[in-house]
Design brief:
With 255 residues, the chain is mainly α. It contains 11 helices and 5 strands. α2 crosses α6, α3 packs across α5 and α5 crosses α8.
């Protein structure tokens, strides 16, 4: 696992959503034989943190909890999201073949959801062991602010759908509440249980390759409520971007 500063994005990488971390290859046969490699793109991450995540938190997270939004937590959550992609169930346990082929068009959204919650789970375990510094509330609050950030990628994006699902699941488990003033307050005790329960649910669906159950879950919890949409609209009114674009190339580099 290495961290880099990106100097140039081209082709598909420079169209649409800008990647902040990479775990490749995606082919589970290669993953099982050779493993995967992770890259963290630190300067891109910092740009999204400063220009998107902090402004979102300043609008949607309750003022008392905003101090828990930190770049280190964002970096660690993203890193373990990628680690979680490299681990987990690649093949169903009931002979349905790979998880990816049995869950078809829904496999990516579920896999992104898995990487988010299991990434946070790993952060929590390492934090307990003293391997990660800081307050665990940093990681959880930054995680919550990032849910709002990623929901804005929309239902066409695997990341967008995964985050809609998690938002609705966490809401049901009272991992956070919405205050009348339109901010959100996290319940740190309940987040742990919500994270564990959602991890268990996703891993079981992947292991069983249960397409119908994933479809049902996405139908029930994979959409944006009217109220959440109104809250997200406030981010647009405040001119908080959905993503960043780059000023790049030889001219910018002074070459
Ligand atoms: Zn991912």
């Amino acid at each position: 696992l290495n961290a880099y500063d990106a100097i140039y994005y081209s082709g598909e990488s420079n169209s649409g959503g800008k990647t902040i971390a990479i775990n490749l290859p995606n082919d589970e046969r290669v993953q099982l034989k050779k493993g995967t490699r992770r890259l963290q793109l630190k300067n891109v991450m910092k740009a999204k943190f400063d220009k998107i995540l902090v402004p979102i938190a300043n609008e949607l997270i309750t003022p008392e909890q905003r101090k828990f939004i930190t770049f280190d937590a964002f970096f660690a959550n993203t890193m373990f999201h990628e680690v979680a992609h490299g681990l987990g169930i690649k093949n169903t346990i009931n002979g349905k073949g790979s998880v990816r082929t049995s869950l078809k068009n829904l496999s990516s959204a579920l896999e992104e959801g898995k990487a988010d919650v299991l990434g946070l789970y790993m952060v929590m375990q390492l934090h307990k062991k003293g391997e990660l510094d800081g307050d665990m509330k940093d990681y959880m609050t930054t995680f919550m602010a990032s849910i709002f950030r990623s929901i804005r990628f929309g239902a066409a994006s695997a990341h967008g759908r995964a985050n809609m699902l998690r938002f609705n699941y966490f809401k049901e488990k009272e991992a956070f509440i919405r205050n009348d003033n339109g901010t959100y307050t996290l319940n740190y005790d309940k987040i742990t249980k919500a994270m564990n329960d959602l991890s268990a649910l996703i891993l079981k669906l992947q292991g069983d390759g249960d397409y119908d159950a994933v479809e049902k879950l996405m139908k029930e919890k994979g959409s944006i409520s009217h109220q959440l949409q109104k809250d997200l609209d406030r981010l647009v009114e405040k001119n908080i971007p959905v993503d960043i674009t780059f000023e790049q190339g030889v001219k910018v580099l002074g070459l």
